[in-house]
């Protein structure tokens, strides 16, 4: 047993503080993990080369290239359109789920699951609403199936690639494209069967956020008529004092047969204008005291009426990495920054009962926005939120079919070259990006939008922290403690405890960070038991990906949280049995294949 020393204590304390910081959301995850790495560097526990090693790790570079290739494929919209048509052919809800699960899982094996969920959330919502089915019956399964599908191949999720890159750094062979498939396919099949049977009965029957807003429109929208006696006729909105109101936003002006939206500070008010406000409608009485403004109590303005040729209703979910976090909507200057008005904010399936402008945003908050027609195209790659609305215009696709087919063909050729051993994953993805760039299918500007730099920062910093755990002996010490607790019970207990620890980490922090922290421990356990380290690496990869119990553990769960109208307990109720099934299946297969 290794004797614990000062450096080990410091690293352990920093990791505990990091976990608490991530759990309490005191700052962005990337910032918290980077700070821990920087402190380790400043204390001399790791060298500058060791601190920066994560940024040159092969796994991280593969992930960066995969973001670009997957982005080019998804941008074409061809896959989305094909699956939507395939879904339309189903006659029953159960049949539609089978038609939906299989291709989505297949896609997730080769594409980043986050953009898949962002792309299909509005398609599924629209399909459900047309048939009177609650979107909550489909959206958690959408997230879970993409997570399960990601376990099928090396390129299915960043977690697998992080583990592969770390194995290479430790001097092992790493994974082939299909090393993990022997576990991924059984796990995916078992998970899908559960979601079609027991899990289907556990799914709630909630209406989506936007559906409920439309039904209760009077709680969100109010109309005031501008009379001739209003003293600010022919003056700007700002001068009239209608911009900085107490909990209310002027989102649209209906003028004769036309509409003015979005409303700017410089917009001129005219007699006869109908002013449409949103926000804390109970405070509308303040405006009734202004001479010349009359509340239209019998207003016939519906939420869908606000949509016109220039404006659309957009639903967006605030991300973990958003620059909007810990600020009120008013402080972030949301309207001027994004040229969009916030109609309502929902958190944990409930409308926030406070002034819209005063709401301090948190990850997972769902915003209903009135935005310009270019909003989705402009912000669909934003780190601030996941746009989960569908823009019903031809501008949804900005790539032609030929380019879409070419990008898909390039991805397929690269997969084949990796599968037959002609190229390594890194070389194949680098070649794919070069071809896409030279052919003009993607631009340098688009690449910036595709690459999720915050994810890469978390991975690179987590790898550096993992190095500190190994170098100081902390990983060995934890492995010895793990062995001391579980060895008397049996070898299977070692696998179970390793799996559960990794799974807890991934629910509390991020999947890639969980893998980076737990792999060194897994390798030390393998060494102590003189067993195949690849088996433990596969165990860590699966356990770090299998985040089903909370909406915050995995970003795909967060994306469907608000749009599906879910509550936190829905994830626990559906996710716990699924996590148990995935664990049993994974450990069983790993035991017989590697041990």
UniProtKB/TrEMBL annotation:
Alphabetic keyword roster: Membrane, Repeat, Transmembrane, Transmembrane helix, Transport
Its membrane topology: Multi-pass membrane protein
Principal location listed in the UniProt entry: membrane
Residues in RCK C-terminal domain copies: 209-293, 301-385
Bilayer-crossing regions: 6-24, 31-48, 60-79, 100-124, 144-163, 175-196, 402-423, 450-469, 481-502, 533-554, 574-594
Record's subcellular location: Membrane
SUPFAM superfamilies: TrkA C-terminal domain-like
Protein name: Sodium:sulfate symporter
Native source organism of the sequence: Siminovitchia fordii
């Amino acid at each position: 047993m290794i004797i614990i020393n000062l450096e080990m204590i410091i690293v352990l304390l920093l990791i505990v503080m990091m976990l608490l910081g991530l759990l309490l959301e005191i700052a962005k995850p990337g910032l918290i993990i980077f700070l821990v790495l920087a402190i380790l560097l400043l204390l001399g526990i790791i060298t500058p080369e060791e601190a920066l090693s994560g940024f040159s790790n092969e796994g991280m570079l593969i992930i960066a290239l995969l973001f670009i290739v997957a982005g080019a494929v998804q941008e074409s919209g061809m896959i989305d359109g094909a699956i939507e048509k395939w879904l339309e052919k189903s006659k029953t809800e159960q049949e539609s789920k089978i038609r939906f699960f299989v291709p989505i899982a297949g896609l997730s094996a080769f594409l980043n699951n986050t953009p898949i969920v962002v792309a299909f959330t509005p398609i599924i919502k629209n399909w459900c609403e047309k048939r009177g089915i609650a979107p909550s019956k489909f959206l958690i399964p959408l997230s879970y199936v993409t997570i399960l599908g990601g376990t099928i191949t090396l390129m299915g999720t960043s977690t697998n690639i992080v583990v592969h890159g770390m194995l290479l750094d430790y001097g092992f062979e790493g994974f082939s494209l299909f090393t993990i498939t022997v576990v991924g396919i059984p796990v995916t099949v078992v998970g899908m069967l559960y979601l079609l049977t027991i899990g289907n009965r556990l799914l709630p029957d909630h209406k989506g956020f936007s559906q409920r807003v439309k039904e209760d429109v009077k709680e969100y929208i109010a109309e005031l008529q501008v009379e001739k006696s209003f003293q600010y006729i022919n003056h700007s909105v700002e001068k009239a004092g209608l911009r900085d109101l107490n909990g209310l936003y002027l989102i649209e002006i209906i003028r004769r047969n036309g509409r003015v939206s979005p409303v700017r500070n410089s917009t001129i008010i005219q007699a006869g204008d109908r002013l449409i406000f949103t926000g804390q409608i109970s405070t509308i009485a303040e405006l009734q005291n202004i001479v010349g403004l009359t509340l239209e109590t019998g207003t016939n303005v519906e939420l869908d009426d606000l949509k016109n040729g220039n404006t659309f209703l957009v639903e967006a979910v605030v991300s973990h990495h958003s620059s909007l976090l810990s600020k009120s909507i008013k402080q972030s200057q949301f309207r001027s920054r994004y040229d969009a008005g916030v109609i309502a904010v929902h958190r944990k399936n409930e409308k926030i009962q406070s002034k819209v402008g005063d709401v301090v945003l948190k990850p997972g908050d769902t915003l209903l926005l009135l935005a310009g027609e270019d909003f989705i195209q402009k912000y669909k790659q934003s780190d601030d939120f996941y746009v989960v609305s569908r823009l019903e215009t031809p501008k949804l696709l900005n790539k032609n079919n030929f380019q879409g087919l070419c990008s898909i063909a390039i991805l397929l050729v690269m997969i084949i070259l990796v599968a037959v051993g002609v190229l390594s994953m890194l070389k194949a993805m680098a070649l794919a990006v070069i071809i896409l760039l030279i052919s003009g299918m993607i631009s340098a500007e688009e690449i910036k939008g595709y690459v999720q730099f915050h994810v890469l920062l978390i991975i690179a910093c987590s790898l550096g922290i993992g190095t500190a755990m190994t170098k100081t002996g902390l990983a060995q010490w934890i492995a010895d403690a793990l062995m001391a607790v579980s060895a008397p019970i049996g070898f299977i207990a070692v696998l179970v405890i390793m799996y559960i620890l990794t799974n807890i980490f991934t629910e509390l922090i991020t999947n890639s960070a969980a893998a980076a922290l737990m792999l060194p421990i897994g390798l030390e356990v393998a060494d102590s038991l003189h067993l195949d380290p690849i088996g433990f690496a596969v165990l860590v990869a699966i356990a770090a990906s299998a985040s089903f119990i909370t909406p915050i553990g995995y970003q795909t769960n967060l994306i469907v949280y608000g749009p599906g109208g879910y509550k936190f307990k829905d994830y626990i109720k559906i996710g716990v049995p699924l996590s148990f099934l995935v664990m049993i299946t994974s450990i069983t297969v790993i035991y017989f294949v590697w041990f």
